């Protein structure tokens, strides 16, 4: 069943979460532990992030450095297949512009279709660490909507070179990202919403938000999006606050604000354990309010927060 069908058919607010593929060479066992920890809350689907290759420099010991390309977290496709086979849960691998050419994307789509994995989250992705601004891969895309168009053509049985497939299979369905506090590169929120509508018109069936800690920002964003003609579900992306260092890290990394009330409570904390408890309580309040507004699904970002999410889920699910 497609993610959009899972969302729409659920009588109560659905539960889902996102995971990282394991670091290269570390195995999949810890990832299974994460799923086992959260499985009791009946996740409707699990997202698997995708990571681009980065340049790393190896010291040759003679005053010279060798530049190599390294993907620290490979295996999105195989991890998705492993989870689907082991747990019989719908999986949603991320498909990126960042670091991938059109041909790279086509091969990923072929692999996923062979595995009968047909739900995707389509994203532009972040710029490379060595870049000052986002630069597409050679023969790649600048924007997620261009990636959507390739997937749409693939669904019609047409390859990137214009040739036709001899056999077509179940078409891909997909969601996209959105930003209640505006994408950092968007000139304003109205422009951001304009492009969300274009993504919907191009085929996106739902949107998942960047994490946020102020529900008012989410509700305001949804209201503005609806007025602009966006009709697809807008799924809130949530991550419990956990560490004192996140007071500065979260605004810097994710370009979102922390509410004054949450900040005041965290500043009272003497250590990370106290901050984690504040984060759990805040997240429970967030989720309960979202549920009161009959939000169809809540999506949790689990990286570094599995234990907190379990405590939240125990109280709300």
Structure overview:
The chain is an alpha/beta fold and 317 residues long. It has one domain: TIM Barrel, CATH 3.20.20.220. 41% of the residues lie in helices and 18% in strands. It is built from eleven helices and ten strands. The protein has an eight-stranded parallel beta barrel, surrounded by six helices. Strands 3-4 form a two-stranded antiparallel sheet. Helix 9 packs antiparallel against helix 10 and helix 10 packs across helix 11. The longest helix is centred in the C-terminal third of the chain and has 21 residues. It is globular and about 60 Å long. It starts with a helix and ends with a helix.
Short description:
This protein is an alpha/beta fold and 317 residues long. The chain has helices spanning 3-9, 29-38, 76-87, 102-114, 144-155, 189-202, 215-227, 246-254, 260-267, 272-292, 306-316; strands spanning 14-19, 43-48, 54-59, 65-70, 90-96, 119-123, 173-178, 207-211, 234-238, 297-301.
């Amino acid at each position: 069943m497609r993610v959009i069908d899972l969302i729409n058919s659920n009588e109560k607010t659905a539960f889902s979460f996102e995971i990282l593929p394991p670091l290269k060479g570390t195995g999949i066992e810890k990832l299974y532990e994460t799923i086992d920890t959260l499985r009791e809350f009946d996740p409707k689907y699990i997202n698997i992030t995708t990571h681009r290759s980065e340049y790393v420099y190896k010291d040759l010991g003679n005053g010279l450095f060798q530049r190599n390309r390294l993907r620290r977290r490979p295996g999105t496709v195989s991890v998705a297949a492993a989870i689907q086979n082991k747990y019989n849960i719908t999986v949603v691998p991320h498909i990126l512009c960042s670091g991938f050419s059109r041909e790279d994307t086509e091969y990923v789509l072929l692999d996923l279709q062979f595995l009968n994995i047909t739900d995707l989250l389509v994203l532009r992705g972040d710029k490379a660490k060595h870049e000052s601004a986002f630069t597409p891969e050679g023969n790649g895309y600048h924007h997620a909507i261009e990636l959507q168009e390739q997937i749409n053509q693939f669904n019609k049985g047409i390859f990137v070179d214009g040739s036709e497939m001899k056999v077509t299979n179940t078409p891909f369905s997909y969601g996209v990202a959105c930003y209640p506090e505006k994408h950092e590169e968007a000139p304003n929120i109205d422009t951001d919403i304009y492009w969300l509508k274009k993504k919907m018109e191009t085929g996106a069936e739902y949107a998942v938000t960047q994490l946020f800690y102020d529900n008012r920002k989410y509700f305001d964003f949804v209201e503005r999006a609806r007025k602009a003609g966006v009709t697809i579900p807008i799924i809130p992306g949530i991550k419990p606050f956990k560490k004192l260092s996140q007071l500065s890290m979260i605004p810097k990394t994710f370009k979102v604000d922390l509410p004054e009330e949450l900040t005041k409570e965290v500043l009272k904390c003497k250590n990370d354990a106290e901050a984690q408890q504040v984060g759990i309580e805040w997240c429970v309040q967030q989720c309960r309010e979202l549920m009161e507004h009959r939000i169809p699904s809540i999506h949790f970002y689990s990286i570094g927060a599995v234990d907190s999410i379990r405590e939240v889920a125990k109280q709300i699910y």
